[in-house]
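Lab channel / #folding
Pinned by the channel admin:
"Please post every new chain as: sequence first, then the structure tokens as a reply. Keep commentary short and put observations after the output so the thread stays searchable."

First post following the new format, from NK:
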Amino acid sequence: MTAATVLHKRDIDGIKENRRVHPFNDRAVIHLKSLGEAAGLSDTGVHLARVAPGDETTAFHSHELSDEFVYILAGTATLSVGDEQHELGPGDFAGFPANGAAHIMQNTGSEDLVYLMAGGRPHVDIVNYPRAGKKMYKVGTRVDIVDTPHIKEIHRG
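Reply from TO:
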């Protein structure tokens, strides 16, 4: 049995923050510290995320095979889930079940939005990007992206 990994604040402060711009949304600029990787987790991704005022967190998306959640630590955001919008602030939680509605957050405040986000890391996942017209297929480390108008349904029978 492997012992638990404890990350103290000083450890987390020392984790390098990585800046990422989403390939399907240039307004999605996020700064991440991977707490899950630092703790040796392989089946769950856990990140401390920071988003500047006006920026978005990702591209509007949903996972078919992976749950996700966010827990707001500081700042404010507008969460769009499907056609609904919700205002979020410190202490608010949002869960996104696998095969649920597409979602995105935008920092609507004047300070950085800081939140904890986590989700499953299944070996296989399908991520839908309805606004970008794309679908991502992930199997292990292989990632394939398809323009959804080019997907053809095959009828068997």
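NK: The CA atoms of residues 71 and 93 lie 4 Å apart.
TO: also worth noting, The mean pLDDT is 95.
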